[in-house]
């Protein structure tokens, strides 16, 4: 066999390997974060959402739709590629914690589509500024947002936990705040874990602000959450017997006695799990429920109507929607 023949065979083999690796890389990218295939997508007839910022530093891509209904996945595309900006039906996201003021000023402002700001944090941490009449829609955990994106800070939750311990309540405390971060965490033991109750205090008591620390502990770990104020949870339609609220009691001493009583009475304790017969918790934050809602909202509008805008977003998502005086009312006595 000639040297030339061997050379052609090696070249052919090398080209096959190159094509195989390239195809695999693109396919893998699509299965994961769509970062490469994003540039090859067919946008014809689809709702195109342009992600102008990352989400806590990570790119917002079409993978955010992976748990949406099939009708949404086949009719909507989320892209962060600048080449798709002109084709977008909505300029999403602007995630509040990732907005770069200088880049915001350089981005050409389209007036024919809604500009959307997303905030997953409460007002103490969302870093939302005025942005006078720049944004048209909000996408947050608040029920009065244009796109509802629930979970599925400034108060002193440590102080009230320490107060409960001083009153005789047995609480295992973990985390940086207690300088106790074991590699093995008991909360990850699931239904067979050692706990009946869990402290589910949010870092601020704000309107509609109920995060995964409540939903996952009640659902995944099957324990009874202990919260601060009932009205926040009641306003979201959460069953009253799903949790124990401290403000149902005149003082912490009575609350601790109630928890001890429930803990020792299996019949009474089981009542806090009866809701499971009629409800199933869906982790809307992990499933990116808000992005599914966004695509559906845009898709239903055959033509984008004249846009409203928020004159002062900082005022809309302000600390006035929070009440952290609760801790004082139960610890200063």
UniProtKB/TrEMBL annotation:
InterPro entries documented for this protein: Glyco_tran_10_C (IPR055270), Glyco_tran_10_N (IPR031481), Glyco_trans_10 (IPR001503), GT10-like_C_sf (IPR038577)
Enzyme class, spelled out: transferase
An annotated GO cellular component: Golgi cisterna membrane
Signal peptide limits: none
Membrane-spanning parts: 7-26
PANTHER family, sorted: ALPHA-(1,3)-FUCOSYLTRANSFERASE C-RELATED (PTHR48438:SF1)
Protein name: Fucosyltransferase
Organism: Caenorhabditis latens
């Amino acid at each position: 066999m000639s040297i030339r023949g061997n050379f052609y065979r090696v070249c052919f083999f090398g080209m096959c390997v190159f094509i195989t690796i390239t195809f695999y890389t693109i396919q893998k990218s699509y299965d994961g974060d769509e970062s490469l295939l994003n540039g090859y997508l067919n946008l014809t007839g689809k709702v195109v959402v342009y992600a102008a910022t990352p989400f806590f530093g990570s790119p917002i891509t079409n993978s955010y739709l992976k748990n949406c209904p099939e009708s949404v996945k086949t009719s909507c595309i989320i892209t962060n590629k600048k080449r798709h900006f002109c084709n977008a039906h909505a300029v999403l996201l602007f995630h509040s914690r990732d907005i770069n003021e200088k880049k915001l000023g350089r981005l050409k402002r389209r007036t024919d589509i809604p500009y959307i700001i997303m905030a997953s944090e409460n007002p103490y941490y969302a870093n939302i500024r005025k942005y006078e009449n720049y944004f048209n829609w909000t996408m947050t955990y608040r029920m009065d947002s244009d796109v509802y994106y629930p979970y599925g800070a400034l108060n002193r939750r440590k102080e009230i936990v320490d107060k409960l311990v001083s009153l005789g309540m047995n609480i295992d405390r973990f985390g940086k705040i207690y300088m106790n971060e074991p590699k093995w965490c008991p909360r990850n033991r699931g239904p067979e874990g050692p706990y009946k109750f869990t402290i589910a205090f949010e870092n601020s008591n704000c309107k509609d602000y109920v995060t995964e620390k409540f939903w996952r502990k009640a659902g995944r770990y099957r324990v009874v959450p202990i919260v601060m104020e009932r009205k926040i949870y009641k306003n979201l339609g959460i069953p009253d017997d799903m949790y124990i609220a401290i403000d149902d009691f005149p003082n912490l001493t009575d609350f601790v006695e109630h928890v001890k009583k429930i803990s020792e009475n299996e019949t009474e304790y089981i009542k806090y799990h009866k809701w499971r017969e009629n409800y199933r918790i869906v982790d809307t934050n992990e499933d990116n429920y808000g992005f599914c809602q966004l695509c559906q909202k845009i898709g239903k509008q055959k033509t984008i109507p004249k846009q409203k805008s928020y004159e002062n977003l900082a005022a809309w998502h302000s600390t006035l929607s929070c009440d952290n005086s609760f801790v004082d009312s139960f610890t200063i006595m």
